[in-house]
Amino acid sequence: MNAPATVSLAIDGMTCASCVGRVERALRKVPGVVSADVNLATERATVSLPNSAAAVPALLKAIEDAGYTAHDMSAPNAVEPVHASDGWRVALAAALSVPLVLPMLGTPFGQHWMLPGWLQLLLAAPVQLWLGARFYRSGWKALRAGSGTMDLLVALGTTAAFGLSLFLLLRPGSHAAHLYFESSAMVITLVLLGKWLEARAKRQTTDAIRALNALRPETARLRRDGIEVDVPADQIRVGDTLVVRPGERFAADGLVLEGRSHADESLLTGESLPVAKQANDHVTGGAMNGEGLLLVRATAVGAESTLARIVRLVETAQAGKAPIQRLVDQVSVVFVPVVVVLAVLTVVGWGLYNGDWPAGLLNAVAVLVIACPCAMGLATPAAIMVGTGVAARHGILIKDAQALERAHAVRSVAFDKTGTLTEGRPTLVAAEPAAGSGLDAEALLLRAASLQTASVHPLARAVLDATAGTVEPAQDVQALPGRGIAGTLHGHRLQLGSTRLMDDIGAPRDEQTARAEALQGEGRSVSWLAEVQADGTAHVLGLLAFGDRIKPGAAQAIAQLQKMGLRTLMISGDNAGSANAVGRQLGIDDVRAEVLPGDKAGVVMALKADGPVAMVGDGVNDAPALAAADVGMAMAAMGGSGAGHSSGSDAAMQAAGITLMRGDLALVAQAIDISRRTSAKIRQNLFWALVYNVIGIPLAAFGLLSPVVAGAAMALSSVSVVTNALLLRRWQPRTGG
Question: Has 416 been annotated as catalytic?
Fold first, then answer.
């Protein structure tokens, strides 16, 4: 069965959490839709369904029937909708409304007066009927769809105030009555002002995406048949030779053919220092070339480039929905109808209590206006957008909102050893034949190398690098997952691998056990080479010992996690002696050694009994454990001296919820810290959004809050939650232990 396709739709006309719920319900009713998530902050819908091409027209029609307009952003050459600025509407509404309010503020001598009723009507009518027409259009669409939105509340409230004023103005003998045109006009003005400020603030939450997209150069210089030509960047093909001059950005991922320089990858990986580049080093599209001219062969272009993948990950995370937001959406479904009922009760209560029906109607207007649920709809997505954006600028890619929200609750962090805590480039430090094997060190090494000529395992590369002569490949080579490798050389059946493998084939190694334990106590990894006879008996030919340097800063990173109250663990397939030696050097709380790749996920599942677990790894054998953890963190291979982009790293990235764009273990603590800060902002935003309503609605109902003040408070609530989220942009990684 094929995986569901994903369609991205840009939606115009949403104003609050109720709109989000309405659009999601409409999309989920379309046949074939697997899931639909709508994000108020990005104004995007992400829809999963089996056949995207056939269903897109139905999705667009469903959104239109719900009262909104949409554009398919998944289509080729899709253009981002351009929203006209409402600044002029705000300015005009203010110019018409302020004269209505100023006379009520009184003169310096404390005298209050009012403009003539007909003049108030002339000033208020354009605001209500023209500049406020958007509220009527949206509110009518909501009513037709059988739901309520912020715009419906504003339309009902301001119409009530405007209608009451018009009735009092036209009623015979009521020329001296107080009119409420200033309330309806100022509410609309303040709501328009709030939405304009909110839109400006929301644009700042997408700064990270815009900054990443700006890294793509529009043109590239290619060398073809000795001639250099400038072409649009989208015409680059894999295998093309790029000429990258000093100060230019790399237009594609590639391999350096000629030249020496440095590359500034800070906006991609968060690495502040330029990285040296020379022949056979990989470069990443979007990075800035330093002082040298480089010739680069393109290896990944367009949607397959590292930059494009980073942008997709950030966009996916920002379009996603955190679990806590789903609760907010459920509340918003019943929120607007409940508010309308409260407004009606306010009118009736005032009318029955003291017969002051106009005051009751005015207080009901204040209830409708202050209860608009826009702040609730923005509280979570705004924080997630800023949090994922600032994380991306520091080299932390968060795949989805669920990973961001779960990371703050992590209690334990488990690490793979090789390539995660260590540099992953082991070297051979000893080759010692067994007594009676008839081999010297060189012969032992050549036999071990013969089994590994086609292997890409780090230990295999270390053996081959240490071999001076020509290596004859073995035949019938067979990988033994988690244990080693087997093959035949000149009629001799050889097996190379771990202590566990030697136990499985019954190869005694008593005379070298003490030496192996001594090497393991120094943190070395030990492999054994054995020969298996035709009758099944086996004997050890010798041992190989490997050393792998611990990553710089690993001990400080572990200490930082422990300072944050987290338990640290290492899960390794290496022998207990070597694993424990590394664990002691780093100060890790718990070491699990000799764990087969297939068993790592089971260890992680068992750890979850003590609380949420994060797993950090970098290879294909870590993918099951990364997927089993509450939060998987994969270390990406961003290139370097012949490093390339490993398929193992790609597999780990697919399984993980968070990708660390460089091998700096400090990013683990930073990812958890940014998750904690973002979750705190979400809780703060939801608290303030609810406080506005919990406090404001009763005050409005009891006549202690005028419609104008209610409008200002409602506008302030939306702007405040977005502004509070934007404070996350000031986040900086902690330094020191």
Answer: yes
